Amino acid sequence: AAMGGSLLPVFAVVLSAWLVVGDPEEAAHVDGAPPSKIAVVGAGIGGSATAHFLRQHFGPEVQVDVFEKGEVGGRLATVTVNHNDYESGGAIIHALNLHMQEFVKQLGLKYRRSMAGKMAVFNGEEVILEETDWYLLDLFRLWWRYGISFIRLQMWVEEIMEKFMRIYKYQAHGYAFSSVEQLLDSLGGSGFINMTQRPLSDSLLELGVSQRFIDEVIAPVMRVNYGQNVSIPAFVGAVSLAGAQNNLWAVEGGNKLVCSGLLKMANANLLQAQVNSISSVHSGEALQYQLSFTTPTGKGSELYDIVVLATPLQTDGGSGIQFQGFPLPFDQLPSDYHKTVATIVHGYLNTSFFGFPDPRLFPYASILTTETPDLFFNSVASVCPVNISAGFRRKQPQEAGVYKVFSPQPLDKSHLKTLFRSYYSVQVTEWQSYPRYCSSQGLPSVELHPNLYYLNGIEWAASAMEMSSVAAKNIALLAYHRWNRQTDMVDQKDLMHRIKTEL
């Protein structure tokens, strides 16, 4: 969701120490037959990564069926303008996202060249903060305007990231968690869990970060990443701030290529179908699930040993799946997903609106905004196509360019006239993009019933491509250990200590 450019220096986290890879398959003991069929509902990054990891753990024999009612990629999608494709959904990936990096490497995909561009913050009347070409000058300006706030913030985010990075080590050793709480607890103890339950602004004020810094720097980053304000929980806020770094990347040809690539590599069976209901079926000792679904050619149903739901089960008509014959572990799911509108406009930016009557003097590639009542958009940025040719250069503001505007509501004619002097085309994508965060909600269950798993609950801790990938790996390991009754690999305490003694 975020855009490149950064107000904070790069995190130098040493990774080599974390990446000790164990072989989780070694400990597998045969406990009856392996599953014959597994269903994954949803082919976004979560579902396609789950199919890939399930194949890794359960081996080549099991049939993996992936149901997708729309396009492969889910919230990773592109739109075409003037013969070029642009990201309309999840756009950037952080340098520390090890699963996403590994996928790109395994699939032989390429990193997209990133095009430098300056960022600024606009408060509805004027630009109040801008990046320069000179890193030290940026630091000096931040220091001058906000004192020690930004150093405190940076240390806080770095400490959280460093703890979060432990997950890769746990997963490499084959450990899984039966709930989002257990996973967070193993990484950052009760501190991480508390961070999912208190507002970001409270945590930052307690750290000694100034209100001015929160309003002028933190709020604009939350608006561009999650379309929400600084009352979102501190944990998702920290993940979002980690994404405001300048060590970001994307996939050449579009991030959604990771999804189709993983499905292919997993040798998964892709079905274009809407799943309508899931019912439990007992045959003797065994519990199976019957999925009833609708395809373009008619209705069907199929029995599965293990089912993973990798699509949001929100209350506002999200997945539309009915559960029959067994109780779910929640009375009601957390509240709804937040609507964000991504508008891709091919036209001339109205730089006068930002205080630059002469467009040739407008130096910014992206504009973030503070929380101002009469501002109708969260951000506007000049965007580059998903395939960047060698001779490509970013359009100058006086030329017609392609811009992505994030806004809470669809833009009307007057909004477009305000932001653009004139335009050739407008393409609107409305996303149920990420949870509507509030700090009082709980985290949904991962295990809905024996051998029935829910991936998207992780989004209520934080929503990002890498969070879905971490959840996918966790569910594949969990499903494997539960199937083989390996309780010693699930929800173990004090893993850092255990892993040290294993080596």
UniProtKB/TrEMBL annotation:
Keywords noted in UniProt: FAD, Flavoprotein, Glycoprotein, Oxidoreductase, Signal
Keyword Glycoprotein: yes
Source taxon at top rank: Eukaryota
PANTHER family: FARNESYLCYSTEINE LYASE, PRENYLCYSTEINE OXIDASE-LIKE
Keyword check for Ligase: no
Record-given protein name: Prenylcysteine oxidase 1 like
GO molecular function, one term: prenylcysteine oxidase activity
Natural source organism: Mastacembelus armatus
InterPro entries reported in the protein's UniProt record: FAD/NAD-bd_sf, Prenylcys_lyase, Prenylcysteine_Oxase1
Family to which the UniProt record says this protein belongs: Belongs to the prenylcysteine oxidase family.
All residue ranges annotated as the Prenylcysteine lyase domain in the record: 129-492
Cofactor: FAD
Signal peptide: 1-22
GO biological process: prenylated protein catabolic process; prenylcysteine catabolic process
Coiled coil feature spans: none
